[in-house]
Design a protein that fits this description.
Helix content: over 70%
Distance between the termini: 75 Å
Number of helices: 4
Shape: elongated
Order of helices and strands: HHHH
Oligomer: single chain
Structural class: mainly alpha
Length: 91
């Protein structure tokens, strides 16, 4: 690249930086950012109370019990040296 192109690119970058700084000084921009952060905080929060029906709390609980059950099957197969279905008397 020649020096003119480099100078033009740096000027564009400087103008972008200046406009970004001016945008951040704007009170409306700051208020919008604060509101967006509040929305993000609300979306992260998971209500940790039991409710009847399909909800995130019941899905998390069911997933945890499924993991415990799967681990139990693997441990039974390891210690008994036979398949789980045979150990359980199903096969």
């Amino acid at each position: 690249m020649n020096s003119k192109e480099e100078q033009t690119n740096s000027e564009v970058t400087n103008l972008e930086n200046e406009s970004f700084i001016e945008q951040q000084k704007d009170p409306n921009y700051i208020n919008e950012q604060i509101e967006e952060n509040k929305k993000d905080e609300k979306s992260i929060y998971v209500e940790d109370q039991y409710k009847f029906g399909w909800n995130s709390y019941s899905e998390i609980t069911n997933g945890r019990f499924a993991m415990i059950g799967f681990l139990a099957i693997i441990l039974i197969e390891l210690f008994s040296q036979q398949p789980f279905l045979k150990w359980a008397g199903i096969l």
